[in-house]
Amino acid sequence: MNGPVQRPADGAPDPVVLAAQVVQAHRDEFIAKLVATTEAEISQLEHDEPLHGLLEASITENIVTALHVIINRIDPLTVDAPASAVSYARRLAQRDVPLSALLRAYRLGHAQSLDLVLGEAVRLGLPDPAGTVIALVHLTSAYLDRVCDQIGRAYEEERERWVDTRGVLRQYWVGQLLDNPRVDPRQAETALDYPLSGSHLAIEVWRHDTDATTDNAAVFDRLTSLLHTVLRAQGRPLLVHTDEAHARIWLAVRPDCRVDPDTVAAELAAAALPVRAALGIVRPGLDGFRRSTRAAARAKTLALSAGPGAPRVVAFARVAPVALLVDEPRELADFVSDTLGDLAVDDARCELIRETLRVFLATNRSYAATADQLMVHRNTVHYRVQRAVDHHHLNLDADAFDLHFALNVCHWHGAKVLRRKRR
Predict the structure, then answer these.
(1) Within 42-128, where are the H helices?
(2) How far apart are CA 263 and CA 304, in angstroms?
(3) DSSP 3-state assignment of 248?
(4) Helix (H) or strand (E) segment spanning residue 314
(5) What is the pTM of this model?
(6) What is the DSSP string of 64-89?
(7) What is 194-323's CATH topology?
(8) What radius of gyration, in Å, describes the C-alpha atoms of the chain?
(9) Domain coordinates of the chain in residue numbers?
(10) What CATH code is assigned to 15-161?
């Protein structure tokens, strides 16, 4: 690679080759500078020692190969990407580093290489500087296009393989954590790349527009990132797909993390994410990981039971009494019937009275607050409450707790706990 300068047929030095050979003499210094610049400019490529070594090897082999192509006037379209560059791309795919960061590194390297080579071409005072510049740009651009195409395909192939493999492994280890009392937490932590020592918040998420063409994996990835930010989670989140349209997310959070479903719902709406979510409870350690998962699952079951009218985001803490009995529909139906009497009928008029009474009790019997929340006149609220007392014989003072609980059960479970209207 350090042989004599190639010459055209007329014996004059080839200016393109001459400029590249001058750069070749300072190659190692340029490579070290480019490695440092790449890590400083692209935050996703600030690596630990093993990956730093791969980055350095990738840049080194690319520079060496590019100079070899120019000096020996090799057709760039016949050159394959260096092995270390392909290995580096695959490793980034395994680390969830976006492909855009890697391609940006190539653009940065190309720009700095051109600056150096073209600078040498001008400094040497070579004949036909415009032709030299055009030839150098053509050669280096063709090399860049060829290599980026190959490393891009290597990245995507590895990403697809890794995601599939990792998904199976994650499902296995999460299953072990939830069901195996003898699971090794340290081994699970290593396999999942998720800490079990802190406090956890489990979240059940699912698409509510299953006919949409948007890629589910991309939607859940965006959702995980958003929840991580909104809930100020620490460390890497854990995402496991349970089927095509459903997934579970675990976040390592502070013990005093404020889980506000209204805030989360607003963020989902602002991001235009077509998903619903059920939030568990914040609990510490492996036991907390399990308890938060159970809570999120119960909240999800409750939300699905409520149907399209359920809030977009349901927090277990807000619906715990009802969610804890979600697996006992017959007992809930009996309780509702015993408590509400003939108001426990699946009928539109009864539903209006039940919902009005539920909000009325939740607002400390405020007619004004109930009217505002239901967007009706205050007199309408008064009429419905009075009808519940006079016509349906409900005692708001003696049975307030049972009554409110039964009304909440109806709100969430609807027809599942109500009697059919007689014809």
Answers:
(1) 49-71, 83-94, 99-123
(2) 20
(3) strand
(4) strand 313-315
(5) 0.56
(6) HHHHHHHHTT--GGGPPPPHHHHHHH
(7) Alpha-Beta Plaits (3.30.70)
(8) 32
(9) 15-161, 194-323, 329-417
(10) 1.10.490
Alpha carbons 95 and 158: distance in angstroms, whole number: 11
| 197 CB-side CA count, 13 A | 6
**Cα 46 from Cα 23, distance rounded (Å):** 27
Chain mean position to CA 307: 25
Distance between CA atoms of 407 and 336, rounded to whole angstroms?
8
CA distance 147 to 145: 6
Closest CA to 17 of 160, 124, 154, 163: 124
Pair of tokens at residue 314: 């349901």
pLDDT tens across the length of the chain (423 residues): 343 334 444 555 687 888 788 888 888 999 999 999 998 898 888 766 667 888 999 999 999 999 999 888 899 899 999 999 999 998 888 777 889 999 999 999 999 888 887 777 777 776 777 787 888 888 889 999 999 999 999 999 888 877 776 777 888 899 999 999 999 999 999 989 899 989 999 999 998 765 555 677 788 989 999 999 999 999 899 999 887 788 999 999 999 998 999 999 999 999 999 999 999 999 999 999 999 999 999 999 888 888 887 889 999 988 888 887 776 778 888 888 888 888 988 888 998 999 999 999 889 899 999 999 999 999 999 999 999 888 888 888 877 788 888 898 888 888 888 888 766
- Residue 419 is given by DSSP the state B
Please name which of 257, 287, 259 lies closest in space to residue 197, comparing C-alpha atoms.
Answer: 287
Domain 15-161 shares a fold with domain 194-323: no
Return the structure tokens found at 186: 């340290």
